[in-house]
Structure formats: structure tokens, C-alpha cells
Amino acid sequence: MHSFLKAIGFSKLKNRLEVEQLIQSVINEASQKHLLSLDNHSTLAELSLEFAPEIGITVRGEYDENKVFHLEHYFPYYRGQNISAREQIFVSKRVDTDAYTGMCDDYRLGVSLIFYLQNIIDYLHIRQDIKVPMAYPVSLVGLACEGKILLPVEKCVRNESSSKTDLRHRNQLIAEAKKGNQEAIDSLTIDDIDMYTMVSKRIKKEDVYSIVDTSFVPYGTESDNYTVLGTIMDVREVINQKSKEELFILSLECNELCFEVCINKENLFGEPSIGRRFRGTIWMQGNVDFNNGLTSM
Question: What is the mean pLDDT of the chain?
């Protein structure tokens, strides 16, 4: 059973038989089909069925020459409505299954962002046509099995504006440092030392979440799992029409990166509202618009 099925409203599945029945219903009643003909007389297929707006399950597999579908794997999804980034995307196939991950360098986070690619058929269609590095718009979303709501950090408007300016300056330094600029590297090193000193002093008397406003940290051994602490910019409630379970869609801002998180209402501790913060571990997914790429400089 996929561990993130409960994030989209299937927390009451009891055994493998119920999961297999659910997957078979996706195959039989798929509302979206994406196909790609292969050289060996078979067809690669993505079959999707929604249970709430933009929320559902996708199964991947192949149709053989007799039009019989062979399941490879499945995954729950939520398709975000907003563009989170426009960066050069590197796509690689996983070694254990017929799935792909995308990676981009986003200086706002300070780490290489790795996500599960939702639309591999689109990528395989245009893969042979990519001759030069391209920057593509990507909609990032996260599925969370559990999470907590935290109160916001009190700050004045002047300090908030100054923090955003400092963050943009740091992003510029990171970009220069990756190009080998020694002055930028030295400046970042000094900033890190000063930050460590400041945190070491404050942590003696304050809670860590009153010092850290937002954070984005890789989690565990899975490359596309992250522990996030983000400010809630919007909240929506939807219902899984099959299971009747209630879900929250949270729009988050984390280090100026905006993305959405889908979580089961029963697994969220606290009452979400705009301005409060969400903390939880997410499985990051991304839908890349490969039809609107720009030449990367």
C-alpha cells in the first residue's frame, strides 16, 4: 500500500485487496489517458482518475500488442495550480521502477530541489528534441501524511522587509559562489558564522520555532522527501468523493518558494489559517510544462 494514499483521503483502506480494487477502478474508469507508442509494439500509458478537483491516483504501465494493460506502478497525486519556479530541469529515471525524478537548482532554498515527476509521458514525447539546456515552468506540490499548525513569529514590517532583502542578497551570493566567485564564498562563510553565533545565544532562552521562521530540509533516505516549515498563504477544503474524507489544500511560502500541500484533515493537528505556519514532512511532486521552455542562459 502506498504510504501517501491517506494524504488524498484513503486512510480507511484495510488490506491489499481493497487497494487492488481501488487501482482496478482507476484503470477501468480513468478520466485521463496519456499514451506513448514504443518500438516493441507496446504502448506506455498513464491512466488517471480524480476523486476531488485535481486530486486522484495515476497508474503507469503498458498496453501490449493485444491491448491488455500491464500495471507497472501507481501513485497518488495533487496537481498544483500555480507556477512555483522556472528553472533548468534535469530529469533522471529511477533504477527500481518506471518512474522519473526532476531536479533543479533553486537559490531560494540553498539546496538542489528534487521532486517526483508527475507527467513523464510529456517528457518522453519531447526528450529527443531537447538540444540545448532549457528552463521550464514547474508546479510544485507536496503530499503530507501528518502535520502541525504553529503560530507565526512576531515581527515588524520594517524587519520583514529587511529580511526579504537580505535573503535576495544571499541568493545572489549563492549564485556567484557556484560560479567560483571567491569573494562570494568568503562572504557566505562569514554570514554563516555570524548566524551560528546569533542562534547559539538565542537558543538558550527561546524556542527554536521562534527563531526559525521557515525552513526546507531534506528528510530521510528518499531524495524527494522534505521536512518543511512554511507560512500559510491560503487554505481550501475539499472532499474525496469516493471516501468522503475531508482534505486541506494549504498554499505555503517557504524561503520565498511558493507551493501547495495536500493533507488529510484527520492528520493535521491544529486549525490552519492564513498567517499561521505549517510544519510537516512532505513528498514533493512536480508537474513540468515541457511545452513552454525558455533557452537557459
Answer: 84
